[in-house]
Amino acid sequence: MLDWNGMGVSVMEMSHRSDEYVAIAEKAEQDLRDLLAIPSDYKVLFLQGGASQQFAEVALNLLPEDGVADYIDTGIWSKKSIEEASRYGRVNVAASAKGYDYFAIPGQNEWQLSKDAAYVHYASNETIGGLQFDWIPSVGDTPLVVDMSSDILSREIDVSKFGLIYAGAQKNIGPSGLVVSIVREDLLGRARSSCPTMLNYKVAADNGSMYNTPATYSWYLSGLVFEWLKEQGGVAAMEQRNKAKKDLLYKAIDASDFYSNPIAINARSWMNVPFRLADEKLDKVFLAGADARGLLNLKGHRSVGGMRASIYNATGLDAVEALVAYMAEFEKEHG
Ligand SMILES: *Cc1c(COP(=O)(O)O)cnc(C)c1O
Q1: Beta partners for 146?
Q2: Which residues fall within 8 angstroms of residue 130, CB to CB, at 6 or more apart?
Q3: What pLDDT sits at residue 243?
């Protein structure tokens, strides 16, 4: 941290234009390209403002003032992206999981896509509701835009199916504040004239994500995570590991009358597993016992209640095994 490669300085202290830092930045990008097999006609941007800033940035770059964009509503994050895009142009909510109480994802046969949409936007994993697409929408020549903040790098995807992928870093990539956007080159240069320079994908792409000083240390740390992922065997190996983790946890929930998860089987998230106890009066006791065992952050989002196990790439199978063992013990005692 304090002395990079014997230089006597921290990466934090380096100029972002120095040869040393540029090498760090380029290596991180290349490793991410390798991990996701990103085709050469895509730019990889290391931006700031988190995924939430992308909600506006997507519209400012891709939605013409007199155009329309199609959005799929599957929960809290897609709703936020819809609200934000609506500030800049016409949004057609082409499908909503509301009719399924946000427990299932409407199939594409139920979508009411516009004829001339500038793009179709969805969130591949709803982090709070625990609802995840296990398929990639097929929208013809319309650019497909996805918020992949909470499941990027968790399983294999075909990048070429997308016009734009963005992901806030803090779930599967690195420190918060950074956001990675992977954008197909033909979508650059469409920003409306009022788009702030700092939010213009083309400006970012033309300047190697260094129009201004980037979040150098976050970029560096993300690069270390990419190296770690490669050492683990890459995304295919993470997919296997994540599958084992979620199978174990859902199996434990389904095998018990004490715990429940309401999400349709094919839409259950591999990354965020919400579950409820039979009696919510026991929630506090459950959480206190979990804390005492080092099983942290299991309280569900305040808007949903109950429990939520976020089992991102960094969580090992051993942690899920410990959780499942604790759940069985708790049920024996209180069930
Ligand atoms: C966490 C999250 C966000 C918000 O990310 P920020 O970096 O905090 O703006 C957006 N979308 C999804 C799917 C998320 O999981």
Answers
A1: 122, 165
A2: 261, 263, 268, 269, 272, 273, 274, 308
A3: 98
* Contact (Cβ atoms closer than 8 angstroms) between residue 65 and residue 190: no
**Is 135 among the residues known to form the active site?**
no
* Structure-token pair, residue 156: 């294999």
The Å distance, Cα 227 to ligand 1 centre, comes to 23
Q: Is pLDDT at 304 greater than 90 in this prediction?
A: no
77 Cβ inside 6 Å of ligand 1 = yes
Helix/strand/coil for 272: strand
Per-residue pLDDT of 85-129, as tens digits, reads: 999 999 999 999 999 999 999 999 999 999 999 999 999 999 999
pTM: 0.98
Which residue's structure tokens are 């579950």?
A: 275
Q: Is 125 helix (H, G, I), strand (E, B) or coil?
A: strand
- Ligand 1 pocket: which of 127, 171, 178, 181 to mutate (most atoms <8 Å of CB)? 127
